[in-house]
Amino acid sequence: VAGRVVVVGGGFGGATTAKYIKRRNAAIDVTLIEPSPQFYTCPFSNLYLGGLRDFDAQTHGFDELRSLGVRVIQGFAQDVDPVIKAIKLASGERLAYDKLVLSPGIDIRWDALAGYDEAAAQLAPHAWKAGQQTLLLKRQLDAMPDGGLFLMVAPANPFRCPPGPYERASMVAYYLKTHKPKSKILILDAKNNFSKQTLFTDAWSKLYGEMIEWVPANKDGNVIRVDAQNLTVETEFSVRHKASVLNVIPPQSAGLIAQRAGVTNKSGWVPVQAQTFESSQVSDIYVVGDATIAAPMPKSGFCANAQGKVAAAAIVSALTGKEVATASWANTCYSLVGPNYGISVAGVYGVSEGKIVEIKGSGGVSPREASQEIRKREADYGVAWYNAIAQDTWG
Ligand code: FAD
To answer: Quick check: ipTM above 0.85?
Structure first.
């Protein structure tokens, strides 16, 4: 055995890291810990809300990882002792590691928005972790009367998937336009601008007329209190809004295990060394995905996958005494605004003076003026991207 690696989390970052360590060096012992027997992706969950995809199409398992020799434990990592280098599971089992990888994604900061706790999320779902929450939001949408209000509360930066709330509003608008055309969507935002903003707002007027209203923080969009029982929210300037369906996307932090391991800082997120994604605070713990502070890279599944590959290469190099290769990453976030109407933002990243930087002249967003043919092509690229990344991550 060339070393023992334990990976926490079977999502985009964790599954990719486990797979790519095994592919680079099968002699490394790799264990993956994930509580769920299957992983439901957030990417394309908005299309399910729009009625454009089945829920099951976003479900992935761990058989490919097992066939590569990864030991997959269905369990929950509870604590980390970075001194003796061991991890404790909720079952009581302990695992020793030479290198630990954490890709726990996000946790909701239940204390951050008054009134929004775990019980409230059963009435006003966030659906910002896919699975039961996504199904709940869809059931509420299906039960909503024509002429009702779908109210979304959008968070301040940083948060998982910067274009995600606005893709969701688009897909909900598509569903409402086709099933309940008298309904409205109101987005109350804690920000003054958002990812791909003009591309979204152009498309909204074109496809959905006046259906979607977006209120930025400086126009009293900042929600400070949620009353989930009454499906009501209150803004900074004491204005109350009552919803038929209330979708609260609350402030977030790195998944709890990152805090337990001592790798988070005051912000609640994890600072990492750019070249390897090893924690800046605790050696031999690598963190990838949404849990990290990796700006200008966004918190996306694409980035989590790309960071997982960099961490895998760094870990294999460290365990086999080789030099670490120079890291670079790419990201594209596709958003579907309507059937056959896709938009995207892309970036290419490298390391300069120990920091992650966007490569000058790279990336950008879809053109503002574009033919329907180009919008359709981007929608098709989005589907191809999903199939490719799911295949790359889970097989
Ligand atoms: P995750 O993929 O969430 O994986 C974390 C895993 O860790 C989970 O399975 C969890 O069960 C497990 N875990 C947590 N704690 C523990 C523990 N203590 N022990 C064991 N296991 C644990 N990204 C894109 O690139 N493109 C898109 O189109 C896109 N669309 C999105 C749409 C929506 C609505 C949302 C919400 C997100 C979207 N994203 C998209 C973002 C993407 O979902 C995340 O960036 C990605 O999931 C991050 O990967 P991760 O590995 O950090 O976390």
So the answer is: yes
